[in-house]
Design goal:
Helix content is 50%, strand content 8%. By secondary structure, the chain is an alpha+beta fold. Among the domains are: 141 residues, no CATH class; 154 residues, no CATH class. The chain has a five-stranded antiparallel sheet with strand order 6-5-9-8-7, with helices on one face. The termini are far apart. Belongs to the Vang family.
Length: 505
């Protein structure tokens, strides 16, 4: 059987096999290969990177909705080449920020040095008060340098499609402010060659003070303004409906998207496309069980056949819930059975491991191994049970054999129990728990009817789209809460107990 493609056909063998594919890193973002375990420039099996581990891998073939042709490969390579331009844009922004910061920090020093270089003989002597201003300028510049480094020169968390409005506004304000000071300095001090050096020093001190106030304004606009929550954002994944709610402050749409994506990787369970194929396979099974007979001759159209199949499927709709019930019950029974076997196998494997003290290692008659060797020694006894459980729960593409052995060695090193080792496989964890080659969500696309630089509003809806799914974000304004106070008289809490001879009190 062959995948439908406009390029060269790729054969797929149905049955038990171990398939090897040699793909470069640029192909990993395509949907047809995003579900496989691939590493750049390496020949590895589709299921796990070991022949014995993947020998029972079964590939169910069928008509694929995606195809990979030579045109697609060229387009993917072009997209990756365009990403280089984005990196250049990021470095350009950093370079401009560094240049502006150097201009701001060197300007007060230039105000103090230029009079000594141009007209040193005409300057008046600087008294004690003037020398004290030198110390003030030095410490204020040091504080300003540390504050600018802490606020602005941080590693970027994400690349935004548009400029950050407040940050661009602050940069423009600083640039205009420094140019204004230079213009006044050139007209009133350089041209006239002012002899009052103490006044020049005070002029430089005023510039540093103004820059500190601008930095305070930057803290208010960039950090403090967004702390108070104003909006509640409902984030829903389009494929499986996983939903989370976040309270955010007054942010632009693009900055809110960054916050949502940062929380997505730690709050949402990992996206598992294999769990979404059950309903499609069930619908295909129902349609495959229907047969259309031509009773009107050979001129029956395709439309009439489709109507007949839809009508037959509607008649079988009443019994489909029974099939769904028994199918889910059978799946749960198999999962419980595989889980019990896995728990027993892991507990038996961990019983062979004994942490020994350094003074007892010389007395031990058995072999002493490091955690990595111990993990490789006990892994084969639990590998089959773990493989069957992961295949039953459709998690086999999320865990490679190497990652399982590393996790096993980590548990052995830290003297963790078998239950702690199994927790990563019995329950689905967040996206960050798995390797980047498992979720491949490097680039997101922000889709919004409103401008991405505009602020959040009540009813704002935007999408965050990646390769396999999208996040639908709905914005609701947090309602205004009015609290009223009511006084309760303490005397109203007094009660009278009336005793009667007939009662037990």
């Amino acid at each position: 059987m062959y995948l439908k493609s406009t390029g060269p056909k790729v054969p797929i063998i149905e049955g038990r096999f171990t398939c090897y594919i040699n793909l470069s890193h640029s192909y990993l973002s395509h949907p047809i290969v995003s579900n496989f375990s691939l590493f750049p420039h390496a020949l590895i099996p589709l299921s796990f990177q070991d022949d014995n581990w993947g020998e029972t891998t079964t590939a169910v073939t069928g008509t694929s909705e995606h195809s990979l042709s030579q045109e697609d490969i060229v387009r993917i390579s072009k997209d990756l080449d365009d990403s280089v331009g984005l990196d250049c844009k990021r470095y350009l922004n950093v370079a401009l920020s560094v240049i502006l910061g150097l201009v701001v920090l060197l300007t007060p020093l230039a105000f103090l040095i230029l009079p000594h270089l141009l007209w040193p003989d005409r300057l008046r002597t600087c008294g004690t008060a003037c020398e004290g201003l030198f110390i003030s300028v030095a410490f204020k510049l040091l504080i300003l340098l540390l504050a600018v480094w802490a606020l602005f020169f941080r590693p970027p968390r994400a690349g935004l499609p548009r400029i950050f409005v407040f940050r661009a506004l602050l940069a423009t304000l600083v640039l205009l402010f420094v140019l204004s000071y230079w213009l006044f300095y050139g007209v009133r001090i350089l041209d006239s060659q002012d002899e009052d050096y103490q006044g020049i020093v005070q002029y430089a001190v005023s510039l540093v003070d103004a820059l500190l106030f601008i930095h305070y304004l930057a803290i208010v606009l960039l950090e403090l303004r967004q702390l108070q929550p104003f909006f509640s954002l409902c984030v829903t994944r389009s494929t499986d409906g996983a939903t989370q709610h976040y309270n955010l402050g007054q942010l632009s749409i693009q900055r809110a998207a960054v916050v949502i994506l940062e929380n997505y990787y730690k709050d949402f369970p990992v996206h598992n496309p294999a769990m979404l194929t059950a309903s499609k396979s069930r619908a295909a099974k129902h349609l495959a069980g229907l047969k259309v007979y031509n009773v009107d001759g050979e001129f029956t159209t395709t439309r009439s056949q489709s109507r007949a199949m839809i009508a037959a499927a509607a008649r079988r709709r009443d019994s489909s819930h029974n099939e769904l019930y028994y199918e889910e019950a059978e799946h749960e029974r198999r999962v419980r059975k595989r889980r019990a076997r896995l728990v027993v196998a892991v507990e038996e494997a961990f019983t062979h491991i004994c942490r020994m003290q350094e003074e007892e290692q010389k007395k031990a008659s058995g072999d002493v191994m490091d955690p990595r060797e111990a993990a490789q020694a006990i892994f084969p006894s639990m590998a089959r049970a773990l493989q069957k459980y992961l295949r039953t729960t459709r998690q086999q593409h999320l865990h490679s054999m190497e990652s399982i052995q590393q996790h096993l060695a980590f548990c052995i090193t830290n003297n963790m129990t078998p239950k702690a080792f199994l927790e990563s496989y019995l329950t689905t964890g967040p996206t960050l728990q798995y390797g980047k080659d498992r979720w491949l969500a490097r680039q997101w696309t922000l889709i919004s009817e409103a401008s991405v630089t505009s602020g959040l509003k009540d009813g704002t809806i935007f999408l965050l789209k990646c390769i396999d799914f999208s996040l639908v974000v709905t914005t609701k304004k947090i309602p205004y809460i009015q609290l009223a106070e009511e006084f309760i008289d303490p005397k109203s809490h007094k009660f009278v107990l009336r005793l009667q001879s007939e009662t037990s009190v």
